[in-house]
């Protein structure tokens, strides 16, 4: 199980995304490109999230290209987070990154937690909110409801997730994001 690719669409968000998951001995990399409106104009976001072999986030690189270009760089070193080179002690204890425009980063805790059906776990993720692009700690709960069925809860959010064998989301909520094509790599 080296990885996979997925193409998601979201009618509600007016977006489409291609994402790949590559898993190796040194960790995993989630990389994608999302096309969506940003500040009322066409834009695309390129992102990459790397983990260590235990699925703990090590780096996040985001580039938004539209009527203006924006980058966000997050790094984790021995549990100490920085965002755009600025230390962020408020993110201490976060293990996962959550990018607010994509279901891709749900894969990180799904793979890291290794929950059995019926089990649940709470965590705090470093959430890059969209569209304001502010990074904040976010309390989240994952419940494994079936072999490929999960429930994601955070604040007012309560979504059923379906995943493939790689932990990539194939359906998020009723139709917030839906995989229209997947492949193993």
Automatic annotation (TrEMBL):
Pfam families the record matches: Glycolipid_bind
Entry superkingdom: Bacteria
UniProt cross-references to SUPFAM superfamilies, sorted A to Z: PA1994-like (SSF159275)
Family annotation (InterPro entries): Glycolipid-bd_prot_put
Name the UniProt record assigns to this protein: Glycolipid-binding protein
